[in-house]
Design goal:
- By secondary structure, the protein is an alpha/beta fold.
- It has two domains: about 50-205, Nucleotidyltransferase, domain 5 (2-Layer Sandwich); about 215-305, Alpha-Beta Plaits.
- It contains ten helices and 14 strands.
- Helix 2 packs across helix 3 and helix 5 runs antiparallel to helix 6.
- The chain is globular.
- The N and C termini lie far apart (about 85 Å).
């Protein structure tokens, strides 16, 4: 065989060996992207900010758990099921223990629970889950595994669950705290409208509660917020202002504006992370990044806002 032909065949064999390796590397890379984008994608978890999760417990009470990766702490807040609440979306007065089922009846599941916690309690909660997720708050390996792998209703992604599981197992017991709202001044025991005995909200926030719900970026930078109210409903701007204050912001301006009111809500500010968080919290359809005059954040509320708040 001529020497030239031997060289050509040798090169061809090398190319034939390299091609499968390149294909395997490409497939591994594509698989990694798919896992990252769809399987391990996180919606709420961030390594530098709190994730606050509302959990529907088996007995009908509600557990709010704050996972704080900066301080490596987990705080659990327990709310009795016989707490009288004004349900969001203008659905009337109910006991808290009925809200989860009411959300299922309205075909919005845990959205109604988080909406009620924001609207009535002024707790800035977006993530929600059924009772199985309580394992993340406890740190027990078996319960954490069930919270990670068992099926249940939640708006957490699998990536969120995986991050919560890993975080929960790292936090030691000295960094876990519990607050029963029935034992605080935030709730008062009284006779309810239906004649039964239960609790009503006083909104007497303790410093401990405020520290749990405060957004690190907003509170540490003393954010000044302007609220433009085009909702046409009294108290709407005040309610949103109270919620923003719990986050650690200062409401510097509230104005009424009847123009362009046919919207849900709009958020504008310089910090993309903060704008995204506030837009998610208020379920706003529109947001924009850029300076809002002399304010750090501008929130405009429209007539559609009250249907979801």
């Amino acid at each position: 065989m001529p020497a030239r032909r031997k060289k050509l065949l040798s090169r061809q064999k090398k190319r034939n060996k390299v091609l499968p390796i390149v294909l395997v590397c490409a497939l591994v890379f594509v698989l990694f992207l798919v896992l990252k984008l769809f399987v391990f994608r996180t919606k709420f978890w961030s390594n530098d900010s709190k994730l606050i999760l509302a959990i529907n417990r088996e007995d009908g009470s509600v557990l709010i758990t704050s996972f704080d990766p900066r301080l490596q702490e987990i705080a659990n807040i327990y709310i009795p099921k016989n707490t009288e609440v004004e349900v969001s979306r203008q659905l009337g007065i109910w006991k808290l223990g009925s809200v989860w089922q009411l959300g299922a009846n309205e075909k919005i599941d845990g959205k109604l629970l988080t909406g009620t916690l924001r609207h009535y309690f002024k707790f800035p909660v977006v993530a929600w889950a059924d009772s199985e997720a309580e394992g993340f708050s406890e740190g027990n390996l078996g319960k954490v595994a069930r919270a990670l792998f068992n099926p249940y209703k939640t708006n957490l992604t699998f990536g969120d669950k995986l991050s919560l599981a890993a975080f929960s197992l790292r936090v030691n017991n000295t960094k876990r705290t519990g607050i029963d709202l029935a034992e605080t001044t935030y709730l008062i025991r009284t006779n309810l409208k239906d004649g039964s005995e239960g609790y009503r909200v006083t909104r007497s926030f303790s410093q401990r509660l405020l520290s749990i719900f405060a957004d690190d970026v907003i509170s540490q930078n003393s954010y000044k917020i302007a609220i433009i109210d085009a909702s046409g409903e009294a108290n709407t701007a005040d309610d949103v202002g109270e919620l923003m204050q719990v986050l650690g912001a200062k409401v510097a301006s509230v104005t009424n504006d009847g123009e362009d009111g046919d919207i849900n809500c709009f958020v504008r500010g310089n910090d993309k992370v903060v704008v995204d968080r506030v837009a998610d919290l208020l379920s706003c359809d529109d947001w924009e990044f850029g300076k809002s005059g002399s304010f750090d954040l501008e929130i405009k509320l429209g007539t559609s806002f009250i249907k979801n708040f």
